[in-house]
Write a structure and sequence with these properties.
- With 169 residues, the protein is an all-alpha fold.
């Protein structure tokens, strides 16, 4: 279940209902678990991005491609920060963060983090493709295709599934 769905479901619970706080607590637990699921992949990607800077072949890239790689690394770092923010906020407030607005803001942070991750992956793909293919238009086309696949799977498909499940209710 996606964080956005959890936020919506948690928002439907009634105040004063003992199940409401439990449903909200479950929603936040699922939301934080989603962050934990994505972070190891981002950390691995970020590590590989840093290794590339210190690789001897990095100097064989054009200055433009080196700049693109630096930009992709920065975007992935921002993605990690966005995805870690809900957990840090929750930890800092020690449970006082359990609220519908927290789930709403956290959902937006996760989606923003995933969007940044898609950009970082695609920009670095473009750099790697440029090193191999040597045709900027082909590299750009491949990068756009990869971004469209990521965007479709991470954003459009869940929205479609949500609208279909809403229509079936």
């Amino acid at each position: 279940m996606m964080a956005a769905d959890l936020t919506h479901d948690a928002g439907r619970t009634e105040k004063g209902n003992p199940d409401a706080s439990e449903a909200l607590s479950d929603a936040i637990s699922h939301l934080l678990e989603e962050c934990r699921m994505v972070l190891p992949g981002i950390q691995a990607l970020f590590g590989f991005q840093w290794v590339a800077f210190f690789n001897q072949r990095f100097t064989e890239l054009t200055q433009t491609d080196q700049d693109w790689h630096l930009a992709a690394t920065a975007i992935v770092a921002i993605s990690a920060a966005l995805l870690m923010t809900p957990a840090a906020y929750h930890r800092t407030l020690r449970g006082r963060a359990i609220s519908v607005p927290f789930t709403s803001v956290s959902t937006r942070l996760i989606l923003a983090g995933m969007f940044c991750l898609s950009l970082g992956v695609v920009i670095d793909f473009f750099v790697i493709a440029s090193f191999v293919i040597l045709n900027p238009m082909v590299c750009m086309a491949l990068a756009v295709i990869i971004w469209l696949v990521l965007f479709t799977l991470w954003f459009l498909y869940p929205l479609l599934a949500k609208s279909l499940s809403s229509a079936g209710e």
